[in-house]
Amino acid sequence: MRTFILFVFLFVAICYADAQYKYGLQPADHSAYLKSLKANPAKELIDLEQYVPGIVLDIRYATTNNFTGERIYDEAKAYARRPVAEALKRIQSDLKGKGLGLKIFDAYRPYRATVKFYEVYHDTTYVASPYRGSRHNRGCAVDLTLIDLKTGQELKMPTGYDSFTKDAWPSTPARDPVARKNRQLLIDAMEKHGFRVNSSEWWHFDFQGWKNYEVLDIEFSAL
After folding, report:
1. 201 among known catalytic residues
2. pLDDT at 130 over 50
3. What is the value of pTM for the model shown?
4. Spatial separation of the C-alpha atoms in residues 113 and 62, rounded to whole Å
5. Residues 75, 86, 119, 201: which is the catalytic one?
6. What are phi and psi for residue 170, nearest 5 degrees?
7. Does domain 28-222 have CATH number 3.40.720.10?
8. From the CB of residue 208, how many other CB atoms can be counted at a distance below 10 Å?
């Protein structure tokens, strides 16, 4: 009986893995990630809430308040590779002098979430292709906005988070001058420290050198 149960468990696990990796990309698992750290400690995924003083989290994919309408993450956490975390720490320090701070919507994203997003919304203008993986999967992308440190309120931007419209493109002229100014303030603060804004999402920033990091599929609970 135990042998039969083990067989069933292994069969289900294999089928699940095949379903996740059916797009031909085989991301690194937790074991491979730990091995990579021995060769390069900079590849460590850092808990941003613990590392960056005063940073605020609003992890939408740990709730149903996102474009899928489902809870995707097992925990409301934000991780990023060490150089990314260090850059965010410097940005937070710069912003503090202006009475501002960062609010994180998403950072490192397990590959299986990218598969889910693609299967819910196939337009790769706004969701990453599972054939290549996302820069979020590499721990080198962050979705964020600015907040007023006194009130804790988000600064006005051209759209809300995950607005899949051209109004969310950084190149689209924002009709509201306040939103336009705030968007540029965010972009300038991020680019100063090695990030580049995504062409279709004002909130999405990729870190320089992201190609040097592997696509990962590790749940937050394992980190």
Report:
1. yes
2. yes
3. 0.89
4. 11
5. 201
6. -60, -25
7. no
8. 15
